[in-house]
Amino acid sequence: MGDPRRPHLVVFTGAGISAESGIQTFRASDGLWADHPVEEVATPQAWRRDPERVLRFYDQRRDQVRRARPNAAHKALAALEQQGFQVSIITQNIDDLHERAGSRHVLHLHGEILKARSSVDPRMHYPLPRGGIRLGDICDKGSQLRPDVVWFGEAVPHFADACEIAAQADLLLVVGTSLAVMPAASLLEHAPLDAPCVLVDPEADALTPPGVTGLGQPAGKGVPALVRHWTREGRLWLPETLLA
Hints:
The protein is an alpha/beta fold. It is 32% helix and 18% strand. Helix 5 (72-82) packs parallel to helix 9 (219-233).
């Protein structure tokens, strides 16, 4: 991807990076699912049982995303790309905060909340610049539109693409994810053996797997700090003073 002479940073982001922009996470005790059991709003079975409830839930999420703004971590990654680094972002998040910050190479593993898609043809996508989805909104094949998100129990359609990107990394940066959601968490296994891997998360001490360097800071602090080092040196490296 891009010029092989430029350092290639592959970034894998999760809910923790968006939480700093005010978007609720799944797994916190006061998070998104506290009042919405997964089985009732985020599965194919829920869609068949009560599509109106599912649509209302995702309308609320969509409104939250539209109100949110990119934070310092999103902006730092976009700035690194502007400095001439290759930056490929693989995200579990369904918001568009990376794109709004200026990042140009973003792969959404779990879909995009600001798009609808056909219920019968997953290749048919429709942008939602405003408003939401209502019962009776149909695709060009006459099927009800649904949120363009991957529900629990559904395949992750872009996982193979994500593995190919991870395999090209000079350094893999993991931000704001517990590495608990499969198959996305297995992306680390596809990075080159000689590519360093850094996990930025306030709970890095508990979450960091073997062979990964942890930086126990929030995304909005840790990511800009790393980017400053890399920009100053013109290369991807692990600054011992920061990661000690």
